[in-house]
Amino acid sequence: MPQSTSEARRATAAAATPLPSMAATGARNWRDYALLLALAFCWSSTYPLTKLALPTIPPITFISVRSLIAAAFLFAILWMRGIKVPTDAKAWKLFATQQLINSTFPFLIITWSQQYVPASNTVVLASTTPIFAFLITSLITRHEPATLIKLAGAILGLAGTILIVGLDALRGLGSEIVAEIAILLATISFACASIFGLRLSDYDPMVVAAGSVLFGGLVLLPPSLIIDQPWTLSPTPTAIVATIVMSIVSSAFGLMLFYVCLGRLGTLTTNAQGYLRIPIGVGLSVLLLGESVPSNLALGLLLVMAGVAAMTVPARRLKLR
């Protein structure tokens, strides 16, 4: 059909050409930053919701089910909006690649690693994604300006994260070196996904999100059926509700916002929301799980906000090229 052919041509061009240069130097308004904050809220909900679900739903089944529920939700909205999903192999190859490096691979690695690494250590290690995105952008892809102020913002954000989760989190680093290296590999994968995602800018963000989560859910379904045997599980009502909420809020809306932010703000600014997720995640954990408020929350939050502000300032000078 003509539409599929046109979409195939766009996807082929996107895959064959260099990464688009994002308008990182353009003017921004409050809507752009509202989108970034909304994305941080969506993805920060994963911390407490996962903790509520995993005790009675194994990781592989949990990730597969949340992805399939999110896919069903998004495809229903696409159907109501009258938007057709591309059927060409090139588009689905892009969707599959993005899902593997942005969700399936890193989520499985982090879930496995958390069996050996304390949660606070995991937060510190996972918060390095903006730094890896900065390094890859400035040293390899150079698809948008990487400035000194953005580097300072990445370092400030990491420092604030460490303060929020507690300086004692650093003392345990190294005791389970293999698992910790695995988490760092997952964060590098997240950073690469935010750059690769620029190739999908020709597609509607909801289409990209729907295709990605559908692939992610289907690829994990066979191992879920073989290993976890979901029909033998007895998930609690709390776990079921947490899974459904996470599917819609984090997977569906979160991915849509992610691709919108990539198109409007670029790689480095979009990755800055990774720091915002920490204080928001802590707040949700206190509210939903009754966890204690970190003693250095106020100071850490100030550093995080300073870091995010520095990373979201439109780049003009001091390019690291």
Whole-number count of domains = 1
Rounded radius of gyration (Å): 19 Å
Shape: globular
Note the total helix count.
Answer: 13
Structural class based on helices, strands and sheet pairing: mainly alpha
Classify the oligomer.
single chain
First-residue to last-residue Cα separation: 44 Å
Mean pLDDT: 77
Short structural summary:
It contains 13 helices and no strands. It has 321 residues and is an all-alpha fold.
Report what the structure shows.
- Its main location: membrane.
- Residues 34-165, 179-311 form the EamA domain.
- This is EamA/RhaT family transporter.
- Keywords: Membrane, Transmembrane, Transmembrane helix.
- It is a single chain.
- This protein has one domain (28-312).
- The radius of gyration is 19 Å and the shape is globular.
- Residues 11-17, 21-27 and 317-321 have low confidence and may be disordered.
- It has helices at 2-16, 30-44, 46-53, 59-81, 89-113, 119-126, 129-141, 148-165, 177-196, 205-228, 237-265, 267-289, 297-312.
- By secondary structure, it is mainly α.
How are the secondary structure elements laid out?
Layout: H1 2-16, H2 30-44, H3 46-53, H4 59-81, H5 89-113, H6 119-126, H7 129-141, H8 148-165, H9 177-196, H10 205-228, H11 237-265, H12 267-289, H13 297-312
Helix pairs in contact: 1-5, 2-11, 2-12, 3-11, 3-12, 4-10, 4-11, 5-9, 5-10, 6-8, 6-9, 7-9, 7-12, 8-12, 8-13, 10-11, 11-12, 12-13
